[in-house]
Structures are given as C-alpha cells and as structure tokens.
Design goal:
329 residues; cytoplasm; two-stranded parallel sheet; protein biosynthesis; ATP-binding; single chain; binds tryptophanyl-5'AMP; mainly alpha; Trp-tRNA-ligase; Trp-tRNA-ligase_bac-type
C-alpha cells in the first residue's frame, strides 16, 4: 500500500484545471492506498488573502473535495494549519534550502514579479513548506498538475539532502501526473495556464459555474479563424486547449476528435464541450450544495482528519528532531 499526499490552496473558487489536473485524480487511490488530502491554507497566505474569504474558501474546498467523491472513511482530509508539524518541518526544510535554488522557481518568479517592491518572504519559502507537507507522511506518490513539476523536483532534492546530512529519514517521493488535463490553459489567453486568480472571469471555468455561464464562456473562448478542429498546440493553441479538455473527459484521441468534427466548425465543437462539462459538473455541484449546508458534518470530518494527520506527522517530526539533535531527550 503506497502513501499518497496532495494539497490544494483555498485561494479562490477551483477551476476546471484544478479538477482535471489534480482533484479527479485523487479518487484513483482511495480504494487501494493510504491517502492524505490537505487544504493548504498556509500556502494560500503567501499572497494577501481576505480573512473572511480565506475562512469561507477553506470550508468550500473541504466540501468540494468530498463532492467529487472522496470518501472520508477512506482518505484523511484535513486543514494544513491544524497540524502544526507542517510549519515546524517547513522551517527545518528552509534550513537546508538555498536561496538561489528557491529564487530559480518559475512560480516564485511569476508571482514575485506581480508584487513589485513588496514580495512576501513566504513566497520564496513556499517550496520548503510544500516539501514538508509531503515528507511528513512518508509519501510515495504526489498526484498534481504539470505546473508543480519544479516544486516536486526540489522536494526530492531536499529529501535526499536531508538524508545525506542527517541519516536516512525521508522517503523520496515521486510525482504522478494524470493522463489528460495535466495543463489546462486559459480560455482567453491559451498560452497561459488556467488559474484560480485570473481576473478575467471569461478565462476560467469554475467548478461551480452554472450551465448557462459555462456555455457563455465556451462560446467566448479564443480560437483562430480557420474554423477547422485540428490539434496544433503551437499554431492553434486555443482550439488545441479545447481539444485537450474534451480528451481529458472523454478519453478520445486527438485523431478521433478531428475525425468527429471534420467539416463541422468550432461552433458545434464548443457546444458539445459545454454539454460535456455541464454533465460532468452537475452531479458534483448537487453534492456540493448538500455538503455546504451541513456544517456539522464538514467540521466532524475535518476534526477527525486533523487528528489522524497529526498522529502520523508527529511520528515523522520526532524522528527529524532526533536526527538533527533538536531535542533534550
Ligand atoms: P494549487 O492550489 O495552485 O493547485 C492545485 C492543483 O491543481 C493543479 N492545477 C492545474 N492542473 C492542470 N491545469 C491547470 N491549469 C491547473 N492549475 C492548477 C496543480 O498542479 C495542483 O495539483 N503548490 C500546490 C499546493 C501544494 C501541494 C502541496 C500540492 C502545497 N503543498 C503538497 C501537492 C503536495 C499548488 O499551488 O496548488
């Protein structure tokens, strides 16, 4: 039985990218493996958050984890800030990370650029905390989207570095990138990743978008003008992104999609994707609405999750303190 860990930031309403790239893949492991799924609220505060929104987004994300089909009897679902070993080990991971390697992270560079003069230090030390999240549980596999590759490589480097410096302690984890949907792009600027924080509402499909909103956003999705459904990421990024979304849901190959829509044009294709998305998201949205109206149930699941996660994490943290001499006995 492998140990699986992954996390999502409660930093806004989740997108189709979060679902296809991560959330839906979490389900694959729940019947066979020991799974820890975390709401990483301490990562969210690496950029400014409104406290009320962060509070609400944390609960919403818990409901969404469950709404996609994660079973709290099978997986441990918890909030990062409720298990103090995450920041404790995060600090230790910082002590073995080099500023240079953190400055090279592309997500840091992108986010720091947007903040001009006031770059929070935690934006730089985000990856050591992510490494701590993963390493605390003896994780074997981390299901994430493509954009987390660099952070995962650093996690492996830090695990190996710690083991070399202080003796064999951590399992060196592997990344698991799903087959389709590993990188869903913006509907408005298809060379850019679809992101929770995009200010252009038409750029992202949100998991809780109403059917008419999904139809409208797809109609407005940027495409080229040759009206031919053909996969060519370089020259036709917009239509290729839509084909990627279609393929991620139906598992049809690009060749098959091209055949199906040969001579039909973009209008028909966009209409069919909208239908497909509405059908995929409707059951999740219905389940979500039930859960969000059951606050006691959510609280009891998160309380139990935090207790289970804490029990496991504190064992590993103790080993780390002993290995480093950070203790009296
Ligand atoms: P976050 O909250 O940005 O994204 C959560 C997950 O969604 C994936 N994802 C995407 N996949 C495909 N296409 C997209 N457009 C897209 N946008 C986001 C992300 O790859 C991720 O899997 N650093 C993480 C949070 C984290 C974490 C961890 C993950 C903190 N600690 C430990 C795994 C293990 C992040 O920013 O996720």
């Amino acid at each position: 039985m492998a140990v699986i860990f992954s996390g999502i930031q409660p930093s806004g309403e989740l997108t189709l990218g979060n679902y296809l790239g991560a959330l839906r893949n979490f389900l694959e492991y729940q019947d066979t493996d020991e799974c820890y799924y975390c709401i990483v609220n301490q990562h969210a505060i690496t950029v400014p958050q409104d406290p009320k929104e962060l509070f609400q987004n944390t609960r919403n994300l818990a409901a969404l984890y469950l709404a996609v089909g994660l079973d709290p009897k099978k997986v441990t679902l918890f909030v990062q800030s409720e298990v103090p070993e995450h920041v404790k080990l995060g600090w230790i991971m910082q002590s073995i990370s080099y500023v240079g390697e953190l400055e090279r992270m592309t997500q840091y560079k992108d986010k720091a650029q947007k903040r001009g003069e006031s770059v929070p230090t935690a934006l730089l030390t985000y990856p050591p905390l992510m490494a701590a999240d993963i390493l605390l549980y003896g994780t074997n596999y981390v299901p994430v989207g493509n954009d987390q590759k660099q952070h995962m490589e650093l996690t492996r480097i830090l695990a190996e570095r710690f083991n070399r410096l202080f003796g064999e302690t951590f399992v060196v984890p592997d990344i698991k990138i799903g087959e389709g949907g590993a990188r869903v792009m913006s509907l408005q600027e298809p060379t850019k990743k679809m992101s929770k924080s995009d200010e252009n509402q038409n750029a992202t499909i949100r998991l809780l978008d109403a059917p008419d909103v999904i139809v409208k956003k797809l109609k407005r999705a940027q495409t080229d003008s040759d009206n031919c459904v053909r996969y060519d990421k370089e020259n036709k990024p917009g239509i290729s992104n839509l084909m990627g979304i279609y393929r991620a849901i139906t598992k049809d190959s690009y060749e098959k999609i091209e055949e199906m829509y040969s001579g039909k044009g973009y209008g028909a294709f966009k209409g069919d994707i909208a239908d497909l998305l509405v059908d995929t998201l409707k059951p999740i949205q219905d389940h979500y609405n039930e859960l969000i109206n059951s606050p006691e149930l959510l609280d009891s699941i998160l309380d139990e999750g935090a207790a289970k996660a804490h029990a496991k994490a504190s064992e590993m943290y103790r080993k780390v303190e002993l290995a480093m001499g950070l203790c009296r006995r």
